[in-house]
């Protein structure tokens, strides 16, 4: 999809649009490999409706993302069509179809399944609508123009690093300690149809592999492949069920304790912790709860960290991600292209998608205040209650 086709779309309704001077081309190409995206006419924010497709409202994280994107776009003067798909692929497909039919001018899409939107994105390309992939890469199509996300490989590195620190194998400065193994660890991955899950897994496994190789840490179940560790739709319930099965099969009776759990998401972590608690960890057994990692700094898990139940999570500030999405919208609305800081990493099978990557932080009990409260992401009262207002 070439962004210079925006000119034709604008011309069809020029009587109702406030067109301003076209920006000079700034290189690159839109989806489909057309002419430079900067060749199009710019449009005023009040003349643009932005469709925002989010995957679900069952996760605190995605509710926060949707709210942040909507708020910042509206503050910039855009009309926003925000939809949540309840983790149902046909629902998200239908929502995007409707956005295109209604004439939404730019789409911001956090996909449920990164391979399930080819038909919708082709329709968007045919209608000259730019597509911004939000946090989850959309795969198998040329019709995605830009990608805003965090450095997902590094998120996996951070998860594994926090696990090793919690186990006492690394100190606070990331240096190896004198602690010896073997320590029993089980591994969880995200939803296999989410491109990010693979980056998280690779970053984590690259970090853990030396410790697995020398038997400092041992996966007693032998489940060290992402297909074995995957959790469909990042489901808390599925994670709990798998953890229960692992305990029954490999740690029955508490004779062999579990020392750590690599978890890529706070919802999965809470499912794991429930299974462990039901099996006596932290209660009747002498062994306390294992070191459990997480991601997304969901308030329920932040409270668990503050209470000493969950060890860590990864904080990805959705406000900053929303800002990058809004900046991308502004660039396309202005007839140009968003600024990328990565043009090599994210190959979706059809093209390398220009991307903007943000940094993330490891949250443990000692830095909840500095990272989450002082930044006004949560209040101290919300952390204490484990619930956002």
TrEMBL record:
<dbReference type="GO" id="GO:0030288">
    <property type="term" value="C:outer membrane-bounded periplasmic space"/>
</dbReference>
<protein>
    <submittedName>
        <fullName>Sugar ABC transporter substrate-binding protein</fullName>
    </submittedName>
</protein>
<feature type="signal peptide">
    <location>
        <begin position="1"/>
        <end position="24"/>
    </location>
</feature>
<dbReference type="InterPro" id="IPR028082">
    <property type="entry name" value="Peripla_BP_I"/>
</dbReference>
<feature type="domain" description="Periplasmic binding protein">
    <location>
        <begin position="50"/>
        <end position="336"/>
    </location>
</feature>
<dbReference type="InterPro" id="IPR025997">
    <property type="entry name" value="SBP_2_dom"/>
</dbReference>
<dbReference type="Pfam" id="PF13407">
    <property type="entry name" value="Peripla_BP_4"/>
</dbReference>
<dbReference type="InterPro" id="IPR049784">
    <property type="entry name" value="ChvE-like"/>
</dbReference>
<dbReference type="InterPro" id="IPR050555">
    <property type="entry name" value="Bact_Solute-Bind_Prot2"/>
</dbReference>
<keyword id="KW-0732">Signal</keyword>
<dbReference type="GO" id="GO:0030246">
    <property type="term" value="F:carbohydrate binding"/>
</dbReference>
């Amino acid at each position: 999809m070439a962004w210079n086709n925006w000119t034709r779309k604008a011309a069809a309704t020029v009587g109702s649009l406030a067109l301003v001077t076209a920006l000079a081309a700034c290189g690159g190409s839109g989806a489909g490999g057309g002419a430079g995206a900067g060749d199009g006419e710019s449009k005023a924010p009040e003349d643009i409706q932005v469709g925002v497709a989010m995957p679900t409202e069952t996760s605190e994280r995605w509710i926060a993302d949707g709210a942040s994107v909507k708020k910042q776009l509206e503050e910039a003067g855009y009309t926003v069509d925000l939809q949540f798909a309840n983790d149902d692929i046909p629902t998200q497909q239908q929502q995007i179809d409707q956005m295109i039919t209604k004439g939404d001018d730019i789409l911001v899409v956090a996909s449920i399944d990164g391979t399930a939107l080819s038909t919708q994105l082709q329709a968007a390309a045919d209608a000259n609508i730019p597509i911004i992939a939000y946090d989850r890469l959309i795969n198998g199509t040329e019709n995605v123009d830009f990608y805003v996300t965090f450095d997902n490989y590094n998120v996996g590195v951070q998860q594994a690093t926090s696990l090793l620190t919690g186990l006492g194998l690394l100190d606070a400065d990331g240096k190896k300690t004198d602690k010896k193994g073997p320590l029993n660890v089980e591994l969880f991955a995200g939803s296999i149809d989410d491109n990010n899950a693979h980056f998280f897994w690779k970053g984590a496994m690259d970090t853990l592999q030396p410790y697995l190789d020398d038997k400092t840490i041992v996966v007693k179940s032998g489940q060290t492949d992402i297909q074995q560790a995957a959790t469909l739709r990042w489901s808390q319930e599925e994670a709990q069920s798998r953890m229960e099965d692992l305990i029954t099969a490999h740690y029955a009776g508490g004779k062999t304790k579990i020392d750590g759990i690599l978890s890529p998401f706070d919802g999965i972590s809470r499912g794991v912790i429930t299974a462990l608690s039901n099996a006596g960890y932290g209660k009747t057994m002498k062994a306390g709860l294992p070191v459990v990692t997480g991601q997304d700094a969901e308030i329920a898990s932040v409270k668990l960290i503050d209470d000493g139940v969950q060890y860590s999570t990864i904080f990805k500030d959705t406000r900053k991600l929303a800002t990058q999405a809004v900046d991308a919208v502004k660039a396309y609305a202005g007839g140009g292209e968003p600024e990328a800081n990565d043009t090599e990493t994210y190959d979706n099978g059809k093209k390398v998608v220009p991307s903007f990557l943000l940094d993330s932080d490891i949250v443990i009990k000692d830095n909840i205040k500095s990272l989450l409260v002082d930044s006004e992401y949560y209040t101290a009262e919300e952390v204490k209650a484990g619930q956002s207002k």
